Amino acid sequence: MEKSEVRLISEEGRRIDGRALDEMRPVKIEAGVLDRSDGSAYVEVGKTKIYAAVYGPREAHPKHLAQPHKAILSCRYHMAAFSVEQRKAPGMTRREVELSKVIREALESVVLLEEFPRSAIDIYVEVIQADAGTRTAGLTAASVALADAGIPMLDLCAAVAVGKVEGKIVLDPSEEEDKMGEADMPIGMAPRLGSIVLLQLNGRLSSEEFREALKLARKGINIIYELQKRALAKKFASAEPLVEE
Amino acid sequence: MYRVGAKPYPTKIMQDKLYELISRGERLDGRKPHEHRPLDIKTSVIEKAEGSALVTLGGTKIIAGVKTSLGAPYPDTPSQANIVVNAELLPLASSYFEPGPPDEKAIELARVVDRCIRESKMLDLEKLVYIPGKSVLVIYVDVYVLDYDGNYFDPSVLASVAALATARVPAFHVRDGEVVADPESRVGLPIKKLPVSVTVGFLRDKIIVDPTALEESAIDTSIVLGWSDENEVAAIQKSLPGLMRESLLDELITVTREKSIELRAKLMSAVGRIGLP
Lengths: 245, 277
Hints:
Chain A is α+β, with helices and mostly antiparallel strands. Chain A has helices spanning 94-108, 134-148, 175-180, 207-237; strands at 27-31, 39-45, 48-59, 72-79, 119-129, 158-165, 168-171, 183-190, 195-206. The termini of chain A are far apart. In chain A, 49% of the residues are buried. The mean pLDDT of chain A is 93. In chain B, strands 1, 2, 3, 4, 5 and 6 form a six-stranded mixed β-sheet that branches. Chain B has a four-stranded antiparallel β-sheet with strand order 10-9-11-12, sandwiched between helices. The interface between A and B is large, with 36 and 35 residues. Strand 9 of chain A pairs antiparallel with strand 12 of chain B.
């Protein structure tokens, strides 16, 4: 990558969009936004916009995939053709296959699959606008959708990316920072358990920078986790009683 | 110890046994917790490939081959050569692998190897540009898992890097605006770094290096770290479901760094003195 002429971080330590180094983009989380699914969520992180829906637990198809002792979890992370600058071919790219796998594995860490033997839980993550941080926002949305579906979990998964831009560790990199920066590290956690459920790194970090990045990620994750809980509380507070008085 | 390819069904009992062993500083196959299995790297095993390596790590065997051609660069990197990494989990390697196009595991493996090579800046890709925006070297790295007993990441990275570091590719020249190959001479690739990856497994509060297939089925989860040199991590992938304790992160860095230095030393002696800075 060519050394850019544009400075991504100002003398005062402000980023190109005016944020401080440890500041997230505006985050919006809603639970229960799609009526057909058993659980759903909508997440916005800056211009990144994502729907997640959960179907199940339901009968596994094809049947031979069913496990006698637990539910099988499937996840499809997919980006809409119009979600990026240059139209993306609508099929699954290799990147989408990989991200579907890491998001599914993150969720498998917390969902109590043994509660639903012989069944399937299917998670669909649809990125309708991509502006950096889609896998982390996707995981955040998927875990809210699972909770919205009433599926028992050890914890929610909250995720955020940290990056390295012009030698500085920044929280929640924007698209420009991701493209021109030196590193991008998405992290997903089960915050209550103090455990990591998703961890990837693209780019170069020293051991010290890695530690600093983790600390910063924890800050963002705490914010997301609170918003997730708030979204779920709001959804269930407004839920209508199942039986009319 | 156990039949390779036999169905591992250990879970709880296996976990307890493994944990007990690790707590005493032991493993099922007699290794210490932070020890790789015996490693063997053979380079230039395929005459028709520009570069190749066969790597054996305990019961896991990987072959990687490098082929090159001329091609157009990607529009977003007009003055860089292209690297294309593909990986296949061959059905001859394990009863768990099936024929067919690469599945999510194979795609993940290829993308992790790609990340280790690309992000470590192992190759000076700008030196392989003949006409910017038009003609660059396209480097194909094809990785095949031949025998699988856990941890295909580390030997795949070793095989790919060894194949690239020992590759002899056609020397291209620009003559009257045309790129022509010199039929007489072959040159090495411009190598800047030798990235290596270290895969670790987590079991409760313990870390083991280079898990076998049996261990993989018992551990909580596993993470691969690609080290570009002694001081820099270039790629990370958490690659199994399961929880990893946040408190283990420091040990993860310390252990994988130390092991990466060890692996790199073995890799260097296998590829010989190459054009490192």
